[in-house]
Amino acid sequence: MENLYNFDNFINRHFKISIAFFTLGLFFGILYSINLLGFSIDSQTLNPINMRSIHISLMLYGFIPLMLSYLPFLLINKEVGVDKEGLRFLNLYTIFWYIFLVFMVLSLLLGKSRGLAFYDFAYELNFLLAFAGIFYIIALYKFIRLYKILPLWIKVCLRVVVIAPVALLILMNPIIGQVESTVSGPHGDNTLGMSLALIPIYYLIIKLLNIGEFKASWNIFWIIPTIFYFGSVLHRIIIGPLSYNQEWFLQYLSLLYIPLLYRWFKDSNISAHAKKALLISILAFLFVDIEGNIIFIPQIRWIFHRNDLIVAHAHVAMGIAVFFMVIAMFINSIKELQKDIYLNAYLFALLGIFIVLSISGFTQAGIINIPSHTMWIFRTVFGCFALVFIFAFIKIKKSYSKMQLYNITGILSDGLGGIFLILLASFIYPIVGFTFSGVYEYIVFTFVCMTGIIHYMALKNPSSQIILTNLTVIIRVFASSMFFALYASEKLGMEALAICLFDLAFVFAYLIFFYQKPSKKEILCKD
């Protein structure tokens, strides 16, 4: 339990767990890109709509926002330390967020989407996020007890997080919410609001990373946009929709963030690694800000509306600006982030995606004549190159015990095999002559994955390796016996017998070679 109450261990562990969801998002983005090239299979789950939804949803609701939500706690830890009880609630909040992500991915994989650009998962899943938010609020209250006098940023943060769960359920609601009514954008006030949301995050990140106390200056450049943004919200509520010129004016107010971020960055005193990551984030944010204002010009807006240039714009906004926000936050805590080769590879890949999609956008607008298909090939290549970043976190041991190799085999066969079946069974089953209903099979595949996860837990926890491996054997005995019964009663075909024999092979291998086998020392001992 001591590990749970160590803040550095907590941050390290959950950063590396959540990066798995980021990897999954990249993976589905690459699959979607390959589909656009015309390489597709007739899979119930691996269709382009599902893959695009999962890719976007994981980028927007996975690793990046979860890690950004740790920012207040990182800053509190720097200023006054850690509350162990609060850390427990923060851990629960994180686990509930993981549960939400699992529900989101699987429901999107089976085709349950809302058909929206940025809020594609089922509305009901917002209740999981709101539930997680309750534990976030509790954790924050536990942490701020360490302050004798609450700083202003803590007071603001408290008000935001308290209303966030309720606001989430209202805004996302398909009947009374604002999601469906704002998808035809871009709206100038919405763009200003989204940009405004990142400004306090930049302030807190600089405050976190700064050596010594950071005092913000030139605050008038965020005060003016804030006043006008909330004025626009009241205008929409009380008076009615804004005119195009009013939206245009609000859009251009976001340009005030350019001198503001320049001043803050110049006044900061940050270590070299963190300052480089923060600079990349700020430059990407300012580029998106300027490009967004150019695209908003009426003569340009409708030429590029909803084509690949907008997709390229989104990759810079989320994939570079916000992503490197997170990198800057954690670069002093996560040693893997200090390896330039991996961050440079990722940045190169995202810039490559931006360039080729921008060229494709100009082609789609009829300005140049370079086939989009050619650009999509390069996008796929750069997408694959982005995965190089993940190798910073992969450590492969050179030697394993026989028991560990047994568990690794279980991970590969059941863990990865179960995922493979979820993705491809609807395509493979008919080819090999098996019936596939597309209902109960997914439940079976999920249980297969869970066996693989137990093997993984056995591999990662040497002290519990025997009991966890025994558990996989018990599961396999009962699963194989049930599949044999279904085969013998002719309720299932040869696929049931194949699964039965597969699991029995694992059971027999374990019982013969590992179960209660004495060590060499015990064999040599004499009474």
UniProtKB/TrEMBL annotation:
The protein's matches in SUPFAM superfamilies, at most eight in alphabetical order, are given as:
Cytochrome c oxidase subunit I-like (SSF81442)
> Where do the TM regions start and end?
21-41, 53-77, 89-109, 121-144, 156-176, 191-209, 221-242, 248-265, 277-297, 309-331, 343-370, 376-394, 415-436, 442-459, 466-488, 494-515
Keywords, A to Z, come to: Membrane, Transmembrane, Transmembrane helix
* Domain of life, source organism: Bacteria
State the InterPro entries in the record: Cyt_c_oxase-like_su1_sf
Q: Does the keyword Transmembrane helix apply?
A: yes
Name it: Putative membrane protein
> Which organism was this protein described from?
Arcobacter acticola
